[in-house]
Amino acid sequence: MTNFVAVSEREFASALEAMTDEELFELMADLEKRSETLNRASPTDEVFPKIVLTESAIERRFPDQMLLPYKEWKNRPDRLTLQ
After folding, report:
1. What are 42-57's pLDDT values in tens digits?
2. DSSP-derived secondary structure letter, 7
3. What is the mean pLDDT of the chain?
């Protein structure tokens, strides 16, 4: 997965638009995993804003579906065996 640690929010949002659905979902899953291991009190952490931007990108691609395509992707049997 591409390293987005040192990019601005605008660059990150732009990169999200260029991703395939699969890449976008993989990024979201990675961000979720990273968020679970972080100290939530850290003001310098960029994971949570990136989660919000990624959620927004998914919602724009799949309007009115409340992240359902991502949730379905996350629970696909073929994806679960790869982890």
Report:
1. 655 789 999 999 999 9
2. S
3. 86
- At residue 2, the 3 state secondary structure works out as coil
Rounded-to-integer distance, Cα 83 and Cα 12, Å: 25
Give the DSSP per-residue string, 10-67.
HHHHHHHHHS-HHHHHHHHHHHHHHHHTS-TT-TT--HHHHHHHHHHHHHHHSTTSTT
* Closest-CA residue to 19 (of 4, 36, 39): 4
Q: Is the pTM of this model over 0.85?
A: no
Q: DSSP 3-state assignment of 70? A: helix
CA distance 55 to 78: 23
